Amino acid sequence: MRDALHYLSAAAALPPEVSGRFDIGGPESHSYADLMRLYADAAGIRRPKILPLPVLTPWLAAQWVNLVTPIPRSLAVPLVESLQHDCVMRNHHIDAVIARPANGLTGYLRAVELALAKMREDTVETTWVSAHALESPADPLPTDPQWAGHTVFTDVRERDTQARPESVFKVIQGIGGETGYYSLPVAWALRGLMDKLVGGVGLRRGRRSRGSLSLGDAVDWWRVEEIVPGQLLRLQAEMRAPGRAWLEFSVAPTVSGSRYTQRAVFFPYGIPGRLYWLAILPFHGRIFSSMSKRITMAAEEIDRNLPRHLE
């Protein structure tokens, strides 16, 4: 990305008579198998065993990639199909019009090390999951008065806690990804696998940052639709379901601490949507009750660990 931005910004300053198609690339080339081995070395994990299977078609391989990685089927299929073709520079004509970066071209291993460093430091600015289709402005939202006449199902949980509002919101803002959802992880994982099997995004997209969220960020199969720091977080579901769903968290100060409110909203699509809600209703009782309880407990734990001079 660093090299690509170097060439793009330099190309914008070229005189108009410079025209043509130019390839850009790194200082060396590798096989796809080598790319995985080098990544393992940089990440400090065991190198994978790679066994070529001549009978496996790209389409079947893409279904496997869809299941075992966070990549959704819509991306996995074209990505795997592209592996049949070399992706190397056919010419170096670019060197005649744009000088290489001052520090030289970035090699693959160096690029991986830079990316992993950003992950460790929690300074990732954007990821492949950041792109998403905008909803129509006419679509109903969970904030519309009476939901504009639409059928709606809700699950609302409230808990009073002695934890400070900022501690509660810190826990809220860290939900998903490696942290999980504070309730029945097996049930969440199973629902994510079911979503993957039908071509959805699944529950393994993770997060851009471990501790902070911004508008439009992806959180597993959710998308941050609204965030008011210290007060509100609303997530819209991007999983496959016969309806539209949101999960909303809010916190407000009280005399003794704060009040935590958790709201699940579902707009069903016809009879299949209503049946879907009824089918998962028994699980909601345990999942959402446990979630509200454990989130407030985690916030109280944060307060207990605060140094006295910060209380």
TrEMBL record:
Domain of life of the organism encoding this protein = Bacteria
The UniProt entry, under Pfam families, shows: DUF2867
InterPro entries per UniProt? DUF2867, NAD(P)-bd_dom_sf
Recorded protein name is DUF2867 domain-containing protein
Organism in which the protein naturally occurs: Arthrobacter stackebrandtii
